[in-house]
Design brief:
Layout lengths: L6 E7 L4 H14 L26 E7 L5 H12 L4 H6 L1 H9 L1 E3 L7 H4 L13 H19 L1 E8 L16 H7 L9 H11 L4 E3 L9 H10 L2 E4 L6 H14 L3 E11 L2 H6 L2 H12 L1 H6 L4 E8 L6 E11 L5 E11 H22 L3 E2 L18 H15 L4
């Protein structure tokens, strides 16, 4: 089965961040055969049975609010976190510079002070209305598509986590929300404005963060009307991934979970943003609810996140599970997960871009529920058990893969 011949644009919000930079280095290394496709779900069966866009046909661009460059981020990841050997870093320089040429200044509206104070790139601090924000983003997206003659552009939010956004009072319909966008004060945070811009440009939008993004009735209505695929939120890469694998085991073996306590430490830029209490609350909300949704009842589920600068891009989670078995006997499971944040996230971003591209071409718009396994809080999916979520993806592939 042949893959599409044209090019796919992957536009990342937070383009000079660790995840986006690792996406760029990874694609460059794979293209030059300096690395394998390990970690890419779309390069393994059954995902590989879909005629997806070839990895060497993906063109990168994005928005960034900070003044750091992709090269600076890559060098820091190599020096401080031990990512990318010197050969890969050196030979990816040309591709990283081309990526940098496609990065445009973003905006930070209603993102919380921890994020807004990072805005230092070009015109990122210039005050604009939400309506103007959306127009500028659409202009950037369309220029990117036109310049590189791209068949499609997929927009993925990999920016820092915004604080929890109170949606009470937000208009429920697109017509009503559209009127609010012209007001001086934005009615929505940046993640949602980027989502609106992508949808109005006819480009699939995926929210890899816990931020609000497209998950509002009015924005969902806009996506449905325009026939644009959407999905989110909060990429599932570490501790929560393990929770969704282990919790079904307890349920199926009739072992009662009394408490599940997780302590997370990380040291990158995301960790610094999550050091702010408002931003941290947004992240913890998506991590805390998973266990109860799988096993039922109300186990005492607690999660903490702490910033430890010296860890750089590495993160460690220590979890302790107290559970009861036969004759009400108490027992304990403890585990430690240590992983590199960007190395875990980057391949998922590439997978999501390819799968969203395929869905837009062969199925159409709507919430891409078959991608639930990629997220801590998947839109319109209440099933959090990882095996069941993976089955959803496999069923989708069986349904929509071309038949020989």
């Amino acid at each position: 089965m042949k893959s599409p011949h044209g090019k796919l644009g992957l536009w990342m919000i937070g383009a000079a961040g660790n995840v986006a930079t690792t996406v760029a280095v990874g694609l460059s290394a794979i293209r030059q055969r300096l690395a394998t496709t390990e970690g890419l779900v779309t390069e393994r069966a059954p995902g590989s049975s879909l005629p997806l866009r070839p990895l060497n046909k993906i063109v990168l661009g994005g928005h960034e609010i900070s003044s750091r460059s992709v090269m600076e981020t890559a060098a820091q990841l190599a020096d401080r976190s031990g990512l990318f050997g010197p050969t890969i870093l050196k030979k990816s320089t040309g591709d990283l510079k081309r990526f940098e040429e496609n990065i445009r200044p973003g905006k930070a509206l209603r993102c919380g002070m921890a994020i807004e104070q990072l805005a230092s790139r070009g015109s990122s601090r210039r005050a604009v209305t939400a309506e103007r924000f959306i127009k500028l983003v659409i202009d950037d997206l369309r220029a990117f598509q036109h310049t590189h003659r791209l068949d499609r552009v997929v927009v993925i939010n990999v920016a820092s986590t915004e604080p929890v956004f109170a949606t009470a009072g937000t208009p429920k319909t697109w017509a009503a929300l559209q009127k609010k966008l012209a007001q001086k004060s934005s009615p929505l945070p940046s993640s949602s404005l980027y989502a609106i811009a992508a949808i109005q440009a006819g480009m699939p939008y995926v929210n890899f963060t816990p931020s609000l993004g497209a998950d509002l009735p009015a924005i969902r209505e806009l996506a449905a009307t325009n026939g644009v695929p959407i999905m989110g939120s909060d990429g599932k890469t570490g501790e929560t991934l393990l929770k969704t694998v282990l919790a079904p085991m307890f349920r199926e073996r009739a072992l009662q979970i009394d408490s599940w306590v997780g302590h997370n430490v990380l040291g990158n830029g995301d960790g610094l943003i999550l050091n702010d209490a408002e931003n941290k609350a947004s992240k913890i909300g998506t991590k805390n609810n998973v266990v109860a949704s799988i096993v039922g009842g109300a186990p005492d589920s607690r999660t903490s996140i702490e910033y430890v600068e010296s860890l750089h891009d590495w993160k460690t989670a220590w979890d302790m599970v107290r559970f009861r078995g036969f004759l009400n006997t108490p027992m304990t499971l403890q585990f430690t997960w240590q992983g590199c944040d960007s190395i875990l996230a980057a391949p998922l971003v590439i997978d999501l871009a390819r799968l969203a591209d395929y869905h837009a071409a062969h199925v159409g718009g709507g919430v891409m529920t078959h991608l639930a396994s990629f997220f801590k809080s998947p839109m319109d999916v209440t099933e959090h058990a990882f095996p069941a979520q993976i089955a959803m993806l496999h069923d989708y592939v069986c349904r929509y893969a071309p038949q020989d």
